[in-house]
UniProtKB/TrEMBL annotation:
Protein name: Type III pantothenate kinase
Domain of life: Bacteria
Signal peptide: none
Binding positions (K(+)): 121
Length: 245
């Protein structure tokens, strides 16, 4: 089995794939290495190798990789920045500055359809990237996601205070809010959805209607009712398989 790891700044997403079928038999999200090892323990004896994408510092990534290799007894390949991968040419002036998780999502999207595409990743931040039919990454946009929008209002506005239960309940509708929680959550959600719709309009004005629209990330569920968007939750992992086959 292959252990796949997506190491963000706060959490580590992981899954274990069956070699040959690529079926995901185990997986989860961990806040620490110890929590990760606890989750992986059920399948650790079946692991043969691993691959990792990390947005952490080089030192942190190296330490994490070394620790896991020592405990699990497997070798782990780490994705690296590249000018070209899987038929996609990196569009950044300094290709190494493009976030690795974002880059792998772009590569994965092109590997699925091999045509013009818009790739949306909705997490703490929201990213949007454009790929031409020839595989040229045209660049993209970065904007605050729901967590950052909410946090900024709660940090800089004294009376914006409510808990996570209120937040979940408030976001179930988009009619004007009748409480602070409803007003904030629905306002932020409308901003997010407006950003997404603007990106879709721009992609279509650039490529015409022959464009694939992909969404991934923890908050992608907030836009899955937009019918033209294809939700691919494991897009970064798919790109990781291209980078570290």
């Amino acid at each position: 089995m292959i252990l796949e790891l997506d190491c963000g700044n706060s959490f580590i997403k992981w899954r274990a794939l069956q070699v040959g079928t690529n079926d995901s038999l185990w997986g989860g999200v961990a806040a620490s290495v110890s929590e990760l090892l606890q989750g992986v323990s059920a399948c650790s004896k079946q692991l043969t190798r691993g691959r990792m994408v990390s947005v952490r510092s080089d030192a942190e990534t190296k330490q994490l990789c070394s620790s896991l290799e020592k405990v699990l007894g497997i070798s782990i390949s780490c994705a690296r920045p590249s000018r070209e991968l899987g038929g996609v040419v990196n569009g950044y002036d300094d290709y190494a500055r493009l976030g690795l998780d974002r880059w792998l999502a772009i590569v994965a999207a092109y590997s699925i359809d091999a045509r013009a595409a818009l790739v949306l990743d909705l997490g703490t931040a929201v990213t949007a990237d454009l790929i031409s039919a020839s595989g040229a990454h045209l660049g993209g946009y970065i904007a605050p996601g729901m967590p950052l929008l909410r946090h900024q209002l709660q940090t800089h506005t004294q009376r914006v205070r409510y808990d996570s239960v209120e937040a979940v309940s408030a976001a179930r509708e988009l009619v004007p809010g009748r409480s602070t929680a409803e007003a904030v959550e629905r306002g932020c959600l409308l901003m997010l959805r407006s950003f997404v719709k603007t990106q879709i309009e721009y992609a279509r004005s650039t490529f015409g209607n022959d464009v694939s629209l992909f969404a991934t990330g923890g908050d992608a569920a907030l836009i899955t009712d937009i019918p033209v968007v294809r939700y691919v939750p494991d897009l970064v992992f798919r790109g990781l398989a291209v980078a570290c086959p």
